[in-house]
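Table 4 source record.
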Amino acid sequence: MATVKPFAALRPKPELASRICELPYDVMSSEEARQMAAGNPLSFLHVSKPEIDLEPGVDLYSPAVYAKGHENFARMIAEGALKQDAAPHYYLYRQIMGAHAQTGLVAAVSCQEYADNIIKKHELTRPDKEDDRVRHIEALSSQTGPVFLTYRAEAAFDALVAKLTNGTPDVDLTAPDGVRHTAWVVKEAKDAQAIEAAFAKIPFLYIADGHHRSAAAGRVCKSRNGAGESSRFLAVIFPHNQMQILPYNRVLKDLNGLTPATLLEKLDAVFVISKDGKPKPTRKHELALYMEGQWRTLHFRPAFASTQDPIEKLDVTLLQKYILQPIFGIDDPRTSKRINFVGGIRGTAELEKLVNSGEYACAISMFPTSIEDLMTIADAGGIMPPKSTWFEPKLRDAMFCHLI
């Protein structure tokens, strides 16, 4: 069963939260972070992307970067911008993005349950990225970016959350991207007990986003022998039916020596192609191709999508197996310099812009992977292909920090 525990969060002063809380460190470049934090010494990017306070071009993994993050974090605490709660609590965190709303439980979850696969994974991690998060956690003695978890929704727990979020939130801010973030502190012991009892009935949690953070937390736990709060990591846990997955689109540098006409001939063997296509696919096993100023809708022919294997029938798997490898010559999308990935939050206009600029030869707009597919694959112990999912909205760093 899933174990969740309250913790004494380090949180922004409510009136400063809008100036402090920021997008996760890994959704922006250093230069983008530098621009976002310009003129705002309270921006948490000074902690999560501390290279912005050093000379441009600095090695992102140098000791000086982590030391600067520690210095900036300690300053924000000393100045009272961030303050730790006096007692452990659960927290509830709601995000509203346009018409979409999702409300999750903020809690400390078990590193041992992560190791035992009660907290299930669906992606491989990269050692260099794990190492970076380990160094960041160790430098701060804190987890400052939560792992994004999900679980199969329970109506009874939904009702409890609705009751606990009925009052005035303790934090309420609207970020520059228009996403509203609200948070409530669960203060009553009986409500905390009800939360813990509800999760005792939930068999598994699933990592939606944050594989490197959770892996790093597990390593820190091991190195500290689980001392103090290191045996747990910071998470926000949402019911699966509130999750929003956007597509993770692809742009290709070249056509692998093919002419556009020859490429379309090869694609015709795999897809039913509509010339007057739309930028966004409308169903599973449908893609959209942008090339030479035109969108085409591509629907996999039945023979290619008839498998029942949950990984093999993913559109990202089919794309790699039948298009990227045999036609474009891209054997490993993780390492190839001829392909890039564009999160769905940037929209299909970004794909058109990249191709029209001449930087890329074509773009592929994907249909989003479903949360049901993600959980089925995780249940089977499978690993999804890279860049299969893009979750929105993103959790804001510094809304809650877990001191270890």
